[in-house]
Design goal:
Layout lengths: L1 H10 L6 H7 L6 H13 L3 E6 L2 E6 L3 H14 L4 H10 L3 H16 L16 H4 L3
Antiparallel strand pairs: 1-2
Helix pairs in contact: 2-3
Length: about 130
């Protein structure tokens, strides 16, 4: 349901009320359900809200790519063995995706953001050599 609400917000010409989101969804969900979903998305930082009179208007916090990245981070944050998940993910990347990821990580490091921001360096993993790392 969150994905449907986000899609409705993305299709809106601007900030949307819960009632207009409900209408865009065809009225299949109760207004209170739409409000609950919007509030949960707000707590997850997937949408922003602003007062408009007595109600809020809602806006997606990011484009589709940003929302996909947010979902990926949430999945990763929910896993007890982060290193194993990242290792598995990276080892399954295509050559093109791996090169793109290397380029983005290099750029982030050069800009002073990204990998160098983590105070704990990632432990060395034997599969690093297999991927050329």
């Amino acid at each position: 349901m969150e994905a449907q609400v986000l899609a409705a917000l993305h299709e809106a010409p601007g900030p949307a009320t819960a009632a207009s989101v409900q209408e865009r969804l065809g009225g299949g969900l109760a207004y209170t359900t739409v409000m609950t979903i919007l509030s949960r998305l707000h707590a997850k930082q997937a949408v922003t809200r602003e007062r408009s009179g007595r109600a809020y208007v809602w806006t997606p916090a990011a484009d589709e790519a940003g929302l996909a990245a947010l979902r990926m981070r949430r999945v990763l944050d929910g896993e007890p063995d982060r290193d194993a998940v990242l290792t598995s993910f990276v080892s399954a990347l295509s050559t093109h995706d791996e090169q793109l990821l290397r380029t983005l990580l290099d750029r982030a490091t050069a800009d002073g953001t990204g990998p160098g921001d983590d105070p704990e360096p990632a432990p060395h993993h034997p599969s690093d050599e297999a991927r050329g790392g």
